[in-house]
Amino acid sequence: MNDNENSLEAIREDCRDLAEQIVAEFTAAGAMIATAESCTGGLIAAAITDIAGSSNVFDRGFVTYSNEAKQDMLGVRQETLGKYGAVSARTASEMVLGARRRSRASFAVSVTGVAGPGGGTPGKPVGLVWMGLTGPGDLTSVMELRFSPEWSRDMIRAATVRAALDGLLSRLELSGQADG
């Protein structure tokens, strides 16, 4: 294995560990999760549902790769997409809020970004991802993630999944529903 393959494998192991922790902690809290994914194409939902017992905590996932899907499934406004684009803080915010509104979940995560290898622009380079998180009490935040444009598509997507899983755990802790 080369260094990139080793790094990708390490990220995937982290994701499995984080997903196991999510299933355990969200089960203990009695909390449900929804995902809204663009650049990861369902990988966050897959990471969680790969774990036995995930049906206790995972309500649904929205894979909204196209702008039309973001509008139809999550209620992202056409004006938002026109003014800011699909890869933007505003779109990530509307995606995560739409996922929470259109599910039984009390927690949601959204991701939209440029996984590459093409598709980047100077303003939105390969490796740029916007992630939205929301939890009880309308506690919502959006953060910008920047991964190396030299990374493979698989690396960028895996790192995005890791960030989303970590973000869900942090949001549970912030809500005061986590043990410990």
From TrEMBL:
What Pfam families does the annotation carry?
A: CinA (PF02464)
Chain ranges of the CinA C-terminal domain: 17-171
Protein name per Swiss-Prot or TrEMBL: Nicotinamide-nucleotide amidase
Lineage top rank: taxon: Bacteria
Task: Report the source organism.
Answer: Hoeflea marina
